Sequence to fold (442 residues):
Amino acid sequence: MSTPPPSGPDPAAEASLSPSDDDTSAQAPAEGAPHHRRLRWGWLLLLAGLVLVAVVFMRRHPPATSATTAAGGADGGHGGARGPQPVVTAQATTRDVPVFIVGLGAVTPTASVAVHSRVDGQLMRVTFQEGQHVNEGDLLAEIDPRPYLSQLEQVRGQLARDEAVLENARLDLRRYTALLEQDSVARQTLDTQRALVRQYQGIVKADRGAVAAAELNLAYTRITAPVSGRVGLRLVDPGNIIHAADATGLVVVNTLQPITMIFSIPEDRVPQVMAKLEAREVLAVDAFDRARQQLLATGTLLTVDNQIDPNTGTVRLKATFPNRDSRLFPQQFVNARLRIDTLPGATVVPTAALQHGVQGTFVYVVQPDNTAHLRPVTTGPTDGDDTVITQGVHPGDAVVVEGADKLTQGAPVRRQRALSSGPGVGGSGGADGGTRAPDGGR
Fold:
């Protein structure tokens, strides 16, 4: 009985196949090794790039620490990781504060006269220099007087003749009166002579009026300054024929010392002004330049117009200025500031300290423990770089004038001097917590 062959693989077959399988498995790793290495380096470079981006992001946006989170919480925050906030403070002070009404205005001469000729004729000469200051009555120009001299001689001759006729009529009247007493002449003749005398008297009176008119026309050939002031540019040259009806005169004379200004204020401020005027108080008016930076002159209020302009809701006021230094000029645009009242002992802070939010106007007040506390305030009028505080701040309080935009309620602060002197902002001193520098306040 023969033995069956085993069920497993044939050892001979395995021996014949093993050499080829070993060769294939040995060659595969050798061919794929460069590809796997390139893949591995690509992933490593990508990972390094992500790590680098993460590091840059963390440096620019550091995560909030627990202290910072607590500082920004509901309690208003005390102190973050960055330490106290540097601020500049100024001290609330008390002083008398003037109350002003401001308006826009224009300078006007006290008197402005366009000089015209009163008679017709040839302009012979001009005696003024353009821009010269002249006094009332000074000779400005002269017209050829010869035609008017001739006319004057004519009317004087007519007057002399009519006066002689009148004198003869009076003599006849005296004769007729004596003859009537002797009953040598009729009464009708006497009455006729009396009427004739009165007629001649009227003619003589008319002649005397003609003489006065001729003398006046002759005087008008000398053109004089009607007011004192500064003459403008000459409008007619000598040699031209000028007429009394000419639309253009010879020159314009403006009175500049004193000079006036007309400006407008809102209608709701009129009662205050009228009350002061009726009490005969002298109200000061300041004239500033277009930029409201330079004070040009100081004068006094003269009067208020008699009606309100319905289109603008304003009323016009007139003020006068001595203008001895000629800083004001006709038609110059100015900003007017009318001093209407004075608040004695008012509490003032720099306007830069005022902040505005949904809760209204407020300031940050630095406490003795160097923490900033928000305090709502009620403001009054403004005077220069300062604002009156009627409620919310007391004299001596240190208010923040720089750095308030980064503060929160109760935040710790560190006082420092201002980097640059600005209007109404003074240095706060160093660590000693001083307030405004000497050059920072008013």
